[in-house]
Amino acid sequence: MSNRYAIILAAGKGTRMKSKLYKVLHQVCGKPMIRHVVDEAGRADFSKIYVIVGHGANDVKAAVGKDAECLLQKEQLGTGHAVLQAADQLADLDGTTVVLYGDTPLITHQTIEKLIHIQEEQHAAAAVLTATIEDPTGYGRVIRDASGNVAKIVEDKDANSDEKRVKEINTGIYCFNNRKLFTLLRQVTNNNAQGEYYLPDVIGLLVQGSEKVIAYETESFEETLGVNDRIQLAAAGKYMQEHINQTMMKNGVTLVDPASTYLSAECTIGNDTVIYPGTIISGQSRIGSGCTVGPHSQIKNCVIGDETQIEQSVLEDSWIGNRVQIGPFAHIRPLSKIHDQAKVGNFVEVKNTEIGERSKASHLTYLGDATLGKDVNMGCGTITVNYDGKDKFATKIGDGAFIGCNANLVAPVTIGEGAFVAAGSTITQSVNNNALAIARSRQTNKENYALKLNYRANH
Ligand code: UD1
Ligand code: CA
Fold this sequence. Notes:
Structural class: alpha/beta
Largest sheet: 11 strands, parallel
Strand order of the largest sheet: 12-15-18-21-24-27-30-33-36-39-41
Bound molecules: uridine-diphosphate-N-acetylglucosamine, calcium ion
Number of helices: 11
Oligomer: single chain
């Protein structure tokens, strides 16, 4: 393991989000911003990652999980003060420390690694990632001396009019020699426009101490986009979505209209799968090859096999096999398992139900807490009556059973293999293999009934 450490600053409140949710927990492409940064840092070669938490510390900690250690910054006294919270852990170690922000979700591990490489290769005390942009308002400016070397970084609010004109900005991403960082951080004061301990002041102090500082200008400024409000949140989402969609297309997935296709950063899709417009695939979904999905479908945390067709449907937390047909207008609710070549058709709702191979529920059916064997046919309008107002009960249907239209199967109940249930039956007792169950009152036809009514005769 290398002596490389990352510190991700995530203690701020994010006032401009105007939200109950802490800023770094807002999602970009279905994943909280802080997770994007922690995951990218995880892909770079760090021996340890720290996240500085403050506002919403417990919620942020929960999102970070075991992938990094959270350190509490009780009061937010500035970015320099935030980094100092890791002093007990890092100040006495040899090595390199990279500082990242929890609200820059687009940063990639490649850029992080490049910065480390430059700092280490040139034996610099620090390397700072900079960018030259048209409108530098709000950013810290990178001030260079007459020979072009970095002299210091000046915050927008502290900059004089000459400094304000500088278009090279501090992206807020740095790589430091560890010991030098912590030694100088202790010398940073809060004597500035915002009364904060500024991390970028370390750059000026290093230069004053004749240490080597490199400003490395990034080729992709978008990666360092900071999210401070909902407009930037949408911009970050759009950028990341384009990136995800392009990767998918390069891997052989057809997106009929990439601009209206929303794929999570975590999902995988096999080649030759075609995604129609208006489709949202979120969470950890895994979709096989040769499927067609959409238009207007929502798939959340599902595993789907190959050559399956999903049309205008909603699927959550479920497992779907190969060559299954779903929709249009089906709703597959959590914990369902639908095996190969099964069919779940129009206006069918499935919940916590297993459907065997080649079984069909083609129209207007509710299947809840049920287990269907293979080659079962569920008639149109059939319902598993799984709830008595208090508890839920299971329905079991054996291989090859045929359930007629508009049957109610009152659970708990078992329908045997090859059994028939007559249309319109309300089944309250289990049915043996190969039996026929008819549970409806017999039809009686009363001849000339209408003629016997006075009412009828008078008309
Ligand atoms: C910072 C830089 C600025 C740079 C810009 C790039 C400083 C002083 N300025 O400004 O040079 O151009 O980023 O986006 O660093 N945070 C804490 N604890 C604190 C203060 C901040 O954890 O006490 C976290 C925030 O949650 C945020 C990050 O640090 O994620 C940046 O803080 P912010 O106040 O937004 O700095 P900027 O004004 O954007
Ligand atoms: Ca910021």
